[in-house]
Amino acid sequence: MPRRWGAILAPVEENAEAPSFASPADKLILVVDDDEGIRALVELIAKGEGFQIATAVDGLAAAEVMETRSPDLIVADMMMPRQGGYEFLRGLQASGNGRVPVMIITGSALNDSTIAMLRQEGNVVEFVRKPIRAASFASALHRHLGTAPKRS
Fold first, then answer.
1. pLDDT at 6 (0 to 100)
2. What is the pLDDT, as a whole number, of residue 4?
3. Is 2 exposed, middle or buried (0-12, 13-18, 19+ CB in 10 A)?
């Protein structure tokens, strides 16, 4: 069977299968943010990529949503009323949802020690600063969920 050389100079079989990706339609993203505009923007981006969406205004409302179905990924703000991001992350661990990947979105400038503390939560996979850039945000969703982007 003929071989070709990949980008890192490793032989690649000509008839090798392309990696398979999950369908975005099979993935549920839970968006947790008290800002209606941010929730709407994240929902627009994610739905445009084919994902299922659920939303909540804070950590307590998110916990209620998660009683019916565990999401495949959570996008959460850090500063919210009633139950903020820190408490929400701790609650995920306590409720058995500590393995659900979480992307943190924030408009606050987080210092290095705060970021280091949040990274100790095993499920925090990414930090996204506001304003959200649609293309890079969509790419991050696909990367963390193992899905293929929609083709235009």
1. 46
2. 52
3. exposed
Task: Specify the residue for token string 């445009």.
Answer: 48
Widest pairwise Cα distance in the chain: 62
* Position 17 confidence tier, pLDDT thresholds 50, 70, 90: low
Break the chain into its structural domains and give their ranges: 23-145
What sign for the dihedral angle of Cα 132, 136, 142, 145?
Answer: negative
To which residue do tokens 């503390």 refer? 117
Nearest to 102 by CA among 76, 128, 120, 78: 76
Please state whether 128 falls in left (phi above 0), alpha (psi between -120 and 50) or beta.
Answer: beta
- What single-letter amino acid sits at 59? G
- Average pLDDT of the residues of the chain: 84
Tokens 């290095």 appear where?
A: 112
Architecture of the domain made up of 23-145: 3-Layer(aba) Sandwich (3.40)
Whether pTM > 0.85 for this model: the answer is no
Tens digits of per-residue pLDDT, 88-119? Answer: 888 888 888 889 999 999 877 777 777 777 77
